[in-house]
Amino acid sequence: MAASARPHRLMRNLSAKIASLPMIFTALVIFIGCTAWTVVHSFTSSRLLPRTDFVGLAQYERLWSSNRWIVSIENLAIFGFFMMVFSLAIGFVLAALLDQKIRFESAFRTILLYPFALSFIVTGLVWQWILNPEFGVQSMVRSLGWESFSFDPLYNPDIVIYGILIAGLWQGTGLIMCIMLAGLRSIDEDIWKASRVDGIPTWKTYVMIIIPMMRPVFITALVLIATGIVKVYDLVVAQTSGGPGIASEVPAKYVYDHMFRSQNLGQGFAASTMMLLSVAVVLIPWAYLEFGGKKRG
């Protein structure tokens, strides 16, 4: 009798399941549905309005024959690599310094995190002024007597992406620092005491013990950084608008320009699909190794 009165498995936690329906609906209809719609229309010749006249891989052939798209991919690769490396390195070093219980820690933490509170447009405009050769860093240094000093990354097509990188690091490193600091504060103090008793140098304790223990924290930071890298757009528009020429183009700006300025939805959908594919190529193997391995274990 007791067993027959037990509710069916589908009826357990019914209120929680009902409460999750809006999120499930959003994921299925908005995310998955719109993604599928975009991929399907990337094989059409849609211009101002979506159409269903399929043209096969014509949009992708045109995409990869475009020098502007190739330049945007190269810029994203350079920006992404250095953004990941320097954000993690600088963020961890700053977090390790703040973890030493220094004076005015809360003030330093607020100052370092403050840039993250600004919009990317504001950050881009600020750094556009700072890197402007007429009244920025170059002008200030030359006014001190170094007349031959030259520093104009936003006006040099060979290094313009590094000028954008500087602004990105200035805004995003504070958040990574806070994430790392939270991870360091979660480390048991007994580990540090044991390493001191054993005479292990501080740097070796970080490298051999602390960093491996903070693996989930690093993964979280990497996901956040990668998300910002793929969708970088505001900084480029605010600082250079893609210039000089097309030297600072990025995929997100390519998609926006073709969909809303050139009124070429098919080409914009194809570029969006390639951005999605690049994320999936990295994300799916990582998710399989991260979660599939745990299930098998």
Automatic annotation (TrEMBL):
It comes from Plastorhodobacter daqingensis. The chain crosses the membrane at residues 21-40, 76-98, 110-130, 159-184, 205-230, 269-289. CDD domains: TM_PBP2. Residues 73-288 form the ABC transmembrane type-1 domain. This is Carbohydrate ABC transporter permease. Belongs to the binding-protein-dependent transport system permease family. Pfam families: BPD_transp_1. It is a multi-pass membrane protein.
